[in-house]
Amino acid sequence: MELVQIEARDLPEAWYLCIRECMHHGYIYTIDRGSHQGQQRKEFDSITLRVKYPGSRPLVPVVPEGVPPPSTQDYVEQYLPYLMCGQKEGNEQYTYGQDIEAQLPFLIKMYKEDGFGTNQGCMSIGSAQSILMSDPPFLCLLPVMGPLGWFPFELGCHPNSEGVRGQ
């Protein structure tokens, strides 16, 4: 397993650095199951991404003409509130917000009452039954580390181990 570490000033720089590093250190595989079944994807084995100023604007990188941006500012502003609430649309099996909304008040309460000096601030996404869904959640953990006095989110995703990839 190759571990990639990236430190970036802001989200646009993080996006560019991730693309560059994925070109050099990513691996290609064919998607066997999910919403993009049959397509090929290139991704990291494992990445740690630290963004020094994640809230600085713009949140979305400015790309050269003819290159599609990864998102738009309008989409980000619409998606973030949706991500933090439990509202589910009719065609969705789940939303990340369902689990985040239920756990975030307890996380905030824990930090207010006990301080940030703990490694126990971890929110989980999904349940043991999630694997039975036709399109289960990819993101599964939101460990929120604490002694810095702010919320540097660390996203935990399902690992792609050598055995899973079959290589």
Could you explain the architecture of this structure?
This protein is α+β, with helices and mostly antiparallel strands and 167 residues long. 29% of the residues lie in helices and 18% in strands. The protein has helices spanning 11-25, 73-83, 96-114, 162-165; strands at 3-8, 27-30, 40-43, 46-51, 122-124, 139-143, 156-157. It has 2 domains: 1-83, no CATH class; 94-167, no CATH class. The protein is globular and about 45 Å long. The chain contains 4 helices and 7 strands; from the N terminus they run βαβββααβββα. The strands form 3 sheets. Strands 5-6-7 form a 3-stranded antiparallel β-sheet. A two-stranded parallel sheet has the order 1-4.
Topology record:
Elements: E1 3-8, H1 11-25, E2 27-30, E3 40-43, E4 46-51, H2 73-83, H3 96-114, E5 122-124, E6 139-143, E7 156-157, H4 162-165
Parallel strand pairs: 1-4
Antiparallel strand pairs: 2-3, 5-6, 6-7
Mean pLDDT: 81
Strand content: 15-25%
- Please state the overall shape, judged from the principal axes of the Cα atoms: globular
Structural class: alpha+beta
Low-confidence stretches: 149-167
- Write down how many β-strands occur, each being a DSSP E stretch of 2 or more residues: 7
Record keyword descriptors for this entry:
two-stranded parallel sheet; alpha+beta; 167 residues; single chain; 3-stranded antiparallel β-sheet; disordered C terminus; globular
